[in-house]
Write a structure and sequence with these properties.
single chain; alpha/beta; nine-stranded mixed beta sheet; 9 strands; about 25% helix
């Protein structure tokens, strides 16, 4: 929901929410001003409702806490999740670089792994890494070109300190291998992490796929095809069983990006208007069906001029039609990219709250 202060009648009494908007879990944070409870959101971008919401909440989704329902409260008012990874004394994190035993098209594909731990110097290695933690598999965006794998590391360390293993995925760039090679590489990374869960203290039942920009596109394709043979070069390996997906400013409909050279390169040198079928097949919504998947969080800036926010709101509608659970967060005034407006403590709090459900 987008707050519109000009349409807020401060003297009026806010109407009760009578319509079922449990699918419209859309929250907006305005980075340029302090949001207060009571600001209005005249129109829901997901369902088109013209009802006003002033601190109101709709019925929560099944199995969710009441405070997880639709709300106009700013992220800064969110509290710590009711359930969270196990506490640790003096939490620290340790970063290692490893490879996934994947040698593809002349490249050795690596993972940058950040582990929550105690102080290994005092406790010893085994004691420092004895716990099992959920894992966030993060696909770094790059326009599907060569990635700067450490670009988001300082932000992702915040989640390691909360008790998550972070694995930053390297994929083949589009000038080496076109779609769906990036999806194949991300799936291979998830499977490698499952096989090495004991070594890295990973809880295999709580693996999250996440990413930003082109990496978010890859992450959503991995999530959408989880449990099917689509876009999988080793389907005999079975489902990934991902617990959640988190996508920052993801391009979800490549047919809307005809003039984007990165999309052209991803599709092998053709633009979506030249091969509409290929662009549709490389878009996450094309792969949705009635199979149950983990819930999805979509985060997008309202001022994104590279990947329009309609990519996230439109994909949320597609998820809803497929019966999937989805949350959308629109960051007011934020453009495309990690810094400085998108990856903030407030957004991190929303992500952590989402992953705790």
């Amino acid at each position: 929901m987008i707050f519109d202060e000009d349409r807020l009648d401060e003297a009026s009494t806010p109407p009760a929410v009578s319509r079922d908007l449990s699918h419209c879990r859309l929250r907006t944070w305005d980075q340029d001003r302090s949001c207060e409870n009571g600001q209005a959101a005249p129109t829901c971008q997901l369902c088109g409702s013209s009802d006003d919401f002033l601190g109101q909440t709709a019925d929560p989704l099944p199995g969710r806490r009441p405070d997880d329902a639709v709300t106009t409260c700013p992220p800064s008012t969110l509290t710590e999740p009711a359930s969270s990874p196990p506490p640790r004394d003096e939490p620290t994190c340790t970063s290692t670089s490893t490879w996934t035993d994947a040698h593809r098209d002349g490249l050795d594909l690596h993972l940058q792994i950040i582990q929550p731990s105690g102080d290994a110097a005092l406790l010893g290695w085994d004691a420092a890494f004895e716990h099992r933690y959920p894992c966030i598999v993060f696909v770094q965006g790059s326009g599907w070109r060569e990635q700067a794998l450490g670009a988001a590391m300082s932000y992702l360390c915040r989640f390691a300190e909360r008790g998550y293993v972070i694995a930053i995925v390297q994929y083949r760039p589009s000038d080496v291998a076109v779609h769906p090679a990036q999806v194949h590489d991300a799936k291979a990374a998830v499977r490698w992490l499952r096989e090495h869960a004991d070594q890295y203290g990973i809880d295999p039942d709580r693996i999250v796929i996440a990413g930003d920009s082109s990496g978010a596109h890859t992450a959503l394709l991995v999530h959408a095809t989880d449990g099917s043979t689509a876009l999988d070069d080793t389907p005999q390996a079975g489902a990934l069983n991902l617990s959640h997906a988190v996508a920052f400013y993801a391009p979800t409909d490549l047919t809307l990006m005809d003039h984007d050279d990165a999309v052209r390169d991803l599709l092998g040198g053709v633009r979506p208007s030249q091969d509409h079928e290929a662009a549709v097949a490389a878009s996450p919504a094309h792969h949705l069906d009635g199979r149950r998947r983990g819930p999805v969080l979509l985060v997008h800036g309202t001022a994104d001029d590279v990947v329009a926010p309609e990519h996230s709101t439109g994909y949320a509608q597609a998820l809803r039609r497929a019966g999937q659970q989805c949350d959308v967060v629109l960051v007011e005034g934020a453009g495309h990219g990690i810094w400085p407006s998108m990856f903030t403590p407030e957004v991190a709090e929303i992500v952590a709250d989402f992953l705790a459900t």
